Amino acid sequence: MERISEDEAAARGGPVEGVWRFTVPAEQASVPRTRHAVRDRLLAQGLAEIRYQELVDDLLLIVSELVGNAVTHAAELSPEVTTELAVRGGWVRVSVEDGDPYRPKALAADTGRTGGRGLLLVKSVTLQAGGVCDVEKAGEGGKVIWASLPLPQGGRG
Length: 157
Known about the structure:
The chain is α+β, with helices and mostly antiparallel strands. It has helices at residues 6-11, 30-44, 53-73, 118-128, and strands at residues 18-25, 80-88, 91-98, 132-137, 143-150. Strands 1-2-3-5-4 form a 5-stranded antiparallel beta sheet.
């Protein structure tokens, strides 16, 4: 895929559309590696403008949580985790696929627990941004957790 400047992206009417996949080992070091790869790709596609900053921040938080959950909870059954980033039709979608068939549920906020709120956080950030998220079966018996957020319209910033 081509790299364009912010001015070129704006002249084209926004980010350049496309789909990219990042497959990493199911280990903790893969969380920041995937987050940085997604950030770099978002910026390369024309999402470096200030009006996209909140969207990029939300997407990076979602990627961190979903990849972190996958490497923490699914590594035994899934030696690799695949993140897909898609920019198209006014939306940005991130999905994380692993080979564990267990479908997690967002836990209620429980002040007595120190963890277990990652999916709740993803759902909250996604809904606040006007997006949608879900968990689906993957073709190989695992699962895909995804979140899709709308691109901001031209006048915000």
